[in-house]
Amino acid sequence: MRRHLKSKLLFLCALSLLSAGCSEVPISGRQQFNIVPGSTMNSLSFKSYGEFLAQNKLSTNAEQTQMVKRVGGRIQKAVENYSAENGYEDRLDGYEWEFNLVEDPNVNAWAMPGGKVVVYTGILPIAQGETGLAVVMGHEIAHAFVKHGAERMSQGLLVQMGGIALSTALEDYPDQTKDLFMQSYGVGAQVGVLLPYSRKHESEADHLGLVFMAMAGYNPEQAPAFWERMAAQKKGAAGPEFLSTHPADQTRIQNLKDLLPEAMTYYRRTQ
Ligand SMILES: [Zn+2]
After folding, report:
1. 202 catalytic, yes or no?
2. Looking at the domain assignment, is residue 247 inside a domain?
3. 207 alpha carbon to ligand 1 midpoint, in Å?
4. Is 208 within a domain?
5. What is the pLDDT of residue 199?
């Protein structure tokens, strides 16, 4: 997205001229701009997610599948409790959380809008157990909770449709909305190859993910070690897919370390 448009949006957010589309992200406090209705986002997402599951093989390892569902379910509960206690229930309207493990050697995991999460078996050796898995899933659940996908689509809609999108309901433009979603999340063989999020979205998902895993009772102190293991993967012949969108560099790892004291206050309450 062009820089000047983005700063203009945030300026308008600051002036509350776009109050309908602006809101503050819980925990990070960042102002975000979103004009895509949750119902639109969710219906597009659920369809794509269903197609992905139909075209890919679910893991037959019951133990690992249960672990993915257990970790996802615990973090989901933490997000729901936090939202209920802080007046953010609306953010989760229409969510249908789902956590699936697919049989695929790629080192990957992602979340689609509305709480649809996929973990690839290839990432499990790097997760090395539940807490490492909670780092990945907390991060992906944070993307879904903050609605980074809808934010990205909102920016795309403004670029493609200009001011019309501001004054007209998106339901009047279902085709454009669908096209943008497909560009963001892909279809068929392409599903699961998500466009990389911006650095800002990635850092925010790291931040909220760390807090959410802590709220769910997983020790966030293990997060930097997980990213160190991811970084070590990069040295292999073909870098994992997850790393192309999630560079595990020292900046990322240092940022996580800086966020640990905050996350630990939530973790201690669960102990
Ligand atoms: Zn991410």
Report:
1. no
2. no
3. 11
4. no
5. 86
Cα separations (Å) of 175 from 44, 122, 178, 203? 11, 35, 5, 32
Gap between the Cα atoms of 201 and 87, Å rounded: 22
- What are the CA-CA distances from residue 46 to residues 38, 39, 66, 140, 245 (Å)? 12, 10, 22, 16, 22
Q: What is the 202 CA–ligand 1 centroid distance (Å)?
A: 5
Per-range mean pLDDT, top range of 27-41, 52-66, 157-171, 243-257: 52-66
Residue for token pair 């990389």: 196
Query: Is residue 188 pLDDT above 70, yes or no?
Result: no
* Residue 163 counted as domain residue: yes
Q: What separation in Å is there between the alpha carbon of 168 and the centre of ligand 1?
A: 31
d(CA 190, CA 140): 19
Structure tokens at 185: 């999340």
Mean pLDDT, rounded, for 169-184: 70
Domain count, the chain: 1
How far does the centroid of ligand 1 lie from the alpha carbon of residue 140, in Å?
A: 6
What is the residue range of 117's domain?
A: 20-197
Residue 231 domain-assigned? no
What is the full DSSP assignment across 160-225? HHTTHHHHS-GGG-HHHHHHHHHHHH--GGGTT-PPPPPHHHHHHHHHHHHHHHHHTT--GGGHHH
* pLDDT tens digits along 78-126: 999 999 999 999 999 999 999 999 999 988 999 999 999 999 999 999 9
Q: How far is the CA of 265 from the centre of ligand 1 (A)?
A: 24
For residues 236-257, average pLDDT: 79
Catalytic residue, from 98, 140, 151, 204: name it.
140
